C-alpha cells in the first residue's frame, strides 16, 4: 500500500485541481469498493472543503460480472430510472463529478459481446442529457485512478497481488505528480505547457492532418472554426478544472465526413471490461467501411454498431511519445492512462467545446458544422515512436507537426 500522507495529497489534488470543488457545491463520487480507504479520504476532504453534499456510488467488479452472467436480457438492456434522475438532478444543481476508475481489464472477457453491447447502449441512451452537461463543461468533472488487485496484476503478472498494487501505486503517484512537494503547483505548470501547445495549434488553423506510421495512412480534415484544447478547462460558470488526471494531450475534433484511409491501434483498448487488441479501421468520407482485430473483433463490431455516429470520429488528440505515461514503459489496459502515452482518436461523439461557439449550438447547427454526434465516445491509441504527422495549412502548404512520435513544432 501507499502511505497515508501520499493518499491525502492525491485526494486533495483530485478535489482542488481535478473537479475544483467549490464551497456549497454538491459532489458525486464513484469508486470501486476495493478502493474504500482512499475514497473515504476523498469524502472527508470534500466535506472539509465545504461541499454541500457528498453522494457516494460504490461499484464492484464481481457484482457486475454476476449480473452479466445471470441477469435476463431485458435487465441487461435497461438502465434504472432512479439512476438517471440521480445523475441529471446533480448536474442541474451544478454539482461536481469525480470518477475513480479502476476496472479489471479482463472482467468480461468470457461474456457474450452482445450482452455488453446491450448494456453500453442502454447506459448511453439513458445518460444522454447528463453527458451533454459534461461534454459542454456545464459542470466540473474529473477522472482519476487508484490501484485494485486484478488491475494491478494484469499490468504486473509476475508479482504477488500486494507487490503489484504497490508497484502500480508507485507508477500512478509519479505520473500524476503526487510525488512532488506541491502537486497542485506542479499541475499549474503542466497546464501552462499544454496551454502553449494548443495555443500554437489554434494559431496554425490547419485544414487537414495526415498521419503516417506502420499500418496507418490516414487523412483527417478539420472543420472550420475548430478549437484545440488540453489540460485544464473552464466550466460555463468560469471554474477551472482538469477533466483527466493524468493528461498529456491536446485535442480537437475532426470533420465527421472528412476522414479517409486506414489507422492501426498501438495499444490494447479496454472497452467495458473487454479487451480489443491489434485492430485497424478503414475510413471513407468519415465512416468506418472496414475493420479487423486479432482480439475482440466481435466487441469492436458491436461498438461500431452502437449508432450511426459510432462509425465516425469525434476526437483527435496529440500526445508526445516522451510523456511520463509512455516513459513508464507500462501498458495500463486503462484508457485514462494509455491515451496519455500515445496520440489517439475517438469513435463517437465530439466535444462541442472543440468548435467556436459549439456549446451554444443546437444539434442541427453542430451537424451542419461537421460535428459528430453519438451516444458513445471511445478513445483508442494510434501513436508510437514511429508516428509522423503533417499539417496542411490554409494555403495548401504542408509542414511537420510530429516526427518520430514527438513534436516537430516548437512546443516546449
Automatic annotation (TrEMBL):
<dbReference type="GO" id="GO:0046872">
    <property type="term" value="F:metal ion binding"/>
</dbReference>
<dbReference type="InterPro" id="IPR052170">
    <property type="entry name" value="M29_Exopeptidase"/>
</dbReference>
<keyword id="KW-0378">Hydrolase</keyword>
<keyword id="KW-0645">Protease</keyword>
<comment type="similarity">
    <text>Belongs to the peptidase M29 family.</text>
</comment>
<keyword id="KW-0482">Metalloprotease</keyword>
<dbReference type="GO" id="GO:0006508">
    <property type="term" value="P:proteolysis"/>
</dbReference>
<keyword id="KW-0031">Aminopeptidase</keyword>
<dbReference type="GO" id="GO:0004177">
    <property type="term" value="F:aminopeptidase activity"/>
</dbReference>
<dbReference type="InterPro" id="IPR000787">
    <property type="entry name" value="Peptidase_M29"/>
</dbReference>
<protein>
    <submittedName>
        <fullName>Aminopeptidase</fullName>
    </submittedName>
</protein>
<dbReference type="GO" id="GO:0008237">
    <property type="term" value="F:metallopeptidase activity"/>
</dbReference>
<dbReference type="InterPro" id="IPR035097">
    <property type="entry name" value="M29_N-terminal"/>
</dbReference>
<keyword id="KW-0479">Metal-binding</keyword>
<dbReference type="Pfam" id="PF02073">
    <property type="entry name" value="Peptidase_M29"/>
</dbReference>
Amino acid at each position: 500500500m501507499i502511505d497515508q500522507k501520499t493518499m491525502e495529497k492525491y485526494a486533495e489534488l483530485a478535489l482542488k485541481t481535478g473537479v475544483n470543488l467549490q464551497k456549497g457545491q454538491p459532489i458525486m463520487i464513484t469508486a470501486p469498493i476495493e478502493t474504500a480507504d482512499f475514497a473515504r479520504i476523498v469524502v472527508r476532504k470534500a466535506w472539509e472543503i465545504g461541499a454541500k453534499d457528498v453522494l457516494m456510488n460504490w461499484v464492484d467488479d464481481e457484482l457486475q460480472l454476476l449480473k452479466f452472467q445471470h441477469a435476463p436480457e431485458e435487465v441487461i438492456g435497461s438502465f434504472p430510472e432512479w439512476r438517471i434522475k440521480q445523475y441529471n438532478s446533480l448536474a442541474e444543481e451544478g454539482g461536481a463529478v469525480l470518477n475513480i476508475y479502476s476496472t479489471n481489464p479482463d472482467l468480461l472477457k468470457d461474456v457474450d459481446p452482445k450482452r455488453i453491447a446491450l448494456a453500453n447502449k442502454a447506459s448511453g441512451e439513458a445518460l444522454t442529457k447528463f453527458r451533454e452537461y459534461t461534454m459542454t463543461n456545464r459542470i466540473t468533472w474529473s477522472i482519476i485512478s487508484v490501484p485494485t488487485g486484478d488491475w494491478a496484476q494484469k499490468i504486473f503478472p509476475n508479482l504477488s497481488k500486494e507487490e503489484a498494487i504497490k508497484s502500480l501505486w508507485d507508477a500512478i503517484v509519479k505520473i500524476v505528480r503526487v510525488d512532488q512537494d506541491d502537486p497542485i503547483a506542479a499541475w499549474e505548470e503542466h497546464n501552462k505547457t499544454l496551454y502553449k501547445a494548443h495555443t500554437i495549434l489554434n494559431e496554425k488553423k490547419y485544414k487537414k492532418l495526415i498521419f503516417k506510421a506502420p499500418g496507418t495512412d490516414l487523412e483527417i480534415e478539420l472543420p472550420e472554426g475548430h478549437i484545440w484544447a488540453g489540460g485544464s478547462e473552464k466550466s460555463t460558470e468560469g471554474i477551472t478544472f482538469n477533466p483527466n488526471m493524468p493528461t498529456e494531450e491536446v485535442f480537437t475534433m475532426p470533420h465527421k465526413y472528412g476522414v479517409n484511409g486506414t489507422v492501426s491501434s498501438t495499444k490494447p483498448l479496454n472497452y467495458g471490461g473487454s479487451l480489443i487488441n491489434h485492430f485497424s479501421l478503414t475510413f471513407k468520407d468519415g465512416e468506418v467501411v472496414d475493420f479487423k482485430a486479432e482480439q475482440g473483433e466481435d466487441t469492436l463490431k458491436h461498438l461500431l454498431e452502437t449508432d450511426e455516429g459510432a462509425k465516425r470520429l469525434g476526437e483527435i488528440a496529440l500526445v508526445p511519445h516522451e510523456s511520463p505515461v509512455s516513459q513508464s514503459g507500462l501498458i495500463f489496459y486503462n484508457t485514462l492512462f494509455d491515451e496519455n502515452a500515445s496520440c489517439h482518436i475517438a469513435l463517437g461523439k465530439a466535444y462541442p467545446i472543440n468548435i467556436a461557439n459549439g456549446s451554444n449550438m443546437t444539434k442541427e447547427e453542430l451537424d451542419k458544422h461537421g460535428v459528430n454526434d453519438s451516444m458513445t465516445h471511445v478513445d483508442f491509441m494510434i501513436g508510437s515512436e514511429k508516428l509522423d504527422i503533417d499539417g496542411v495549412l490554409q494555403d495548401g502548404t504542408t509542414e511537420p507537426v510530429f516526427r518520430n512520435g514527438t513534436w516537430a513544432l516548437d512546443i516546449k
